[in-house]
Every structure is written in C-alpha cells, then in structure tokens.
Amino acid sequence: MNKKPYLETMPDQNGYFGRFGGAYIPPQLEKPFAEITKAYNKLSKSHNYISELRSIRKHYQGRPTPVYYCKNLSEFVGGGQIYLKREDLNHTGAHKLNHCMAEGLLAKYLGKKKLIAETGAGQHGVALATAAAYFGLECEIHMGEVDIKKEYPNVVRMQILGAKVVPATHGLKTLKEAVDSAFEAYLKDTDTQMFAIGSVVGPHPFPKMVRDFQSIVGFEAKEQFKEMTGNLPDVVAACVGGGSNAMGIFSGFIDDEVKLYGVEPMGKGDKIGEHSASLTYGKEGVMHGFNSIMLTDENGEPAPVHSIGSGIDYPSIGPEHAYLSSIGRTNIGLCNDDEAVDAFYKLSQHEGIIPALESAHAVAFAMKYAQEHPNESILVNLSGRGDKDIDFIVENYPIPKKSN
C-alpha cells in the first residue's frame, strides 16, 4: 500500500503534530473554535469554496508568483545557485494574502461581520484589511506600539483600507502583546467576529488551516523550479517567526529528498532578550493556546525577544515546525540583524529587488550556504517586499556603495 502524503496525515484530528499543537483555550472559546474547525473541514472539500478561492488567487492576487534565478547575486557570492520564490509580487507585497483571502471567505460563509487579528510587521494586518475590504467586512488589527512606530507605512495602509488599528501598549509592545490584545478583544464577541490568526500558530485548527492556505506557495514553486531546471532544488529556505511562509513553501517539498531550512533571527546576540531563535534556545511550553517550543525567562514565562524583522520577533514557533525539527526533517539556519541588513542591501543592489527585513534573513542564509556549497541550488521564499522597512533602514543603517 502506498504511504499517504504527509499533508494528509498531519496534524491528527485534535490538531497535534506529534506532541506539539492542540487547543489550550478557555471554555468560552471552545464553541467558536469548533465552529471554525467544522466549517473549514467542510469548505475545504467544497467545489464552490475552492473554485471561488482559485478565482480570487488568479484574478485578484495575481497568482502564480514567479520563481526567479538570481544570476547576479549567485555570481557575486561565487558559489551555489540562488533562486527566489517571489511572494513579494503577490498583491499587498507579501505571502500573507494567501491565507487572509481564504480566511475572509471562510468568515463570509460563517456569516461573520468582522475580522480581528494581530500583526507584527504589518503585512498580515494589511492583507487582512484588504480581504475585509474585498468581502465587505469590518476589520480590527492589534499591533504593538513599538511596531506601529517602526512599520508606520503599513499602519497607514491598513487605515486607508478601512481597518481600525489598536495599539498594544503593555509589556514589550511588540508581536506577543499584539496577540494578547487581539485575543482579549475577540473574547468579548465571538458571535459576530472571526479571529484570523496571522501564522501557523495558535489553537487548532489555525496551524493546519494557515499551512493549507499557504501551501499554494510550495506547490507552485516545485512545478516552476522543475520547469526551469529539470530538477528539484537541493535546499529550500525561509525565515521563521511563527512560520507561515516557511510552512507554505516547505509543503511542496516535504515528501521529497530536499533539505529544508527554517532561518531563525539571532538578533543582536545569544542572551535572552537579544534574539528570537525559539528552536535554537527554547524549550517545550504552552503559549497562545498551543504547545510548542518557546523562549522562557527564569520564571518560565514567555521571554522578551528581539529581531530587526518585526514579523519574526515572537517567543515561540508554529507547532508543526517544532515537530518537523524534532524528527529531523527540517534544519535550523541562523541570521543576525547585521547579516539581514547586509543581505537587504546586497539583493537590492545586485538584483534590483528590495526585500522585507524578515525575508532578508533567508537571503543572508542562502548567500552563506551558497558560498559553502558551490554545486548546490537553493530556493528562498522571498516572503515580502521591503517598502515597509525603507524608512527604518536608512535612518539606522547608512546606504553602502555597491560592492563588486
């Protein structure tokens, strides 16, 4: 008997990837989350839902996005061959719209009136505000006060699209606090609102649901890469915070003999509070309704974290990433703030592509990997464009002369 594809077997019906995942939620959330699970299980098999989503992806989002060969950057590095899956060309400039349009469509089928969510770098917030505008829904986005200042262009975009942006003003005022704030607001009205989680995190069914919606990235990339080269890439790499863009592209290659690297943000150093490298330095624990690997302080509470990329400064990681790492299917790459900025400028100046700082972590890893493995090909998920980061970058890092 043929073995079932991985995506059909994981997670189990209770939302567990091995021992990771599940739904650790208060009683008042059990009914609405069960409603979402039931609706998703039904609609994911529905011709009408699938066909409407495919039409949206093609005619509104502009899918498929291309795979691009970085000839100049590959030659500059002088090693292996670097390719990009250009999710920065997806409408709104990042991969986030892949699941936001699907979640918006799901909310519409459920008769909800409002979408509510958290955002870090603002890309999920912009994408959800876009979906809300498309489907005629209200939208409320919770964002850390620190990230609001850092990613202000995305705040303006959300407001222009009609969303209400709510600052998270407690704690470190970044992504974790935005999630806390959004959950609190959702709990006040689970009847007319739908929580639209922005990554492969949170209680079941969100890690599975967001992965499935993002898997279009991997399926497209696999077909495109084979058409371009006749082979599969040796390596697929993506940055990881919660991990939606990484699970999206990994999904297409998970049953193949391809090395998968999730690139974690090493920030400014290896001490607690200086990085967001959950898999590298974390331990098992429950946060935001799911069991995974998380960074903790001396009291066992979620630790303070840092990354120059606001979308990946999260003290835990999606449960599927924790599982795949635990069984040795995925590998960990590391990239610090300075390396990400260097890759940001190198890709911009050698290829004319300005990446999001989050995505620049994966580009930096690919540059190092290519130097060390000159006979291999590496496919990077360029999960977002860098328009949102330009002001922050030029204020803090001088523009270098192009290096030859």
Topology readout:
Elements: H1 6-9, E1 16-17, E2 20-21, H2 27-43, H3 47-61, E3 67-69, H4 71-77, E4 81-86, H5 97-109, E5 114-119, H6 123-135, E6 138-144, H7 145-150, H8 152-160, E7 164-168, H9 175-187, E8 193-195, H10 206-229, E9 235-239, H11 244-250, E10 259-267, H12 278-281, E11 283-287, E12 290-294, H13 319-326, E13 330-336, H14 337-351, H15 357-372, E14 377-382, H16 390-396
Parallel strand pairs: 4-14, 5-6, 5-8, 6-7, 9-10, 9-14, 10-13
Antiparallel strand pairs: 1-2, 3-4, 11-12
Helix pairs in contact: 3-5, 4-14, 5-6, 6-8, 10-11, 14-15
Would you write up a description of this structure?
The chain folds into 2 domains: 17-59 and 96-206, Rossmann fold, CATH 3.40.50.1100; 62-93 and 215-396, 3-Layer(aba) Sandwich (Rossmann fold). Helices cover 44% and strands 18% of the residues. It is built from 16 helices and 14 strands. The protein has helices spanning 6-9, 27-43, 47-61, 71-77, 97-109, 123-135, 145-150, 152-160, 175-187, 206-229, 244-250, 278-281, 319-326, 337-351, 357-372, 390-396; strands spanning 16-17, 20-21, 67-69, 81-86, 114-119, 138-144, 164-168, 193-195, 235-239, 259-267, 283-287, 290-294, 330-336, 377-382. Strands 3-4-14-9-10-13 form a 6-stranded mixed β-sheet, sandwiched between helices. Strands 7-6-5-8 form a 4-stranded parallel β-sheet, sandwiched between helices.
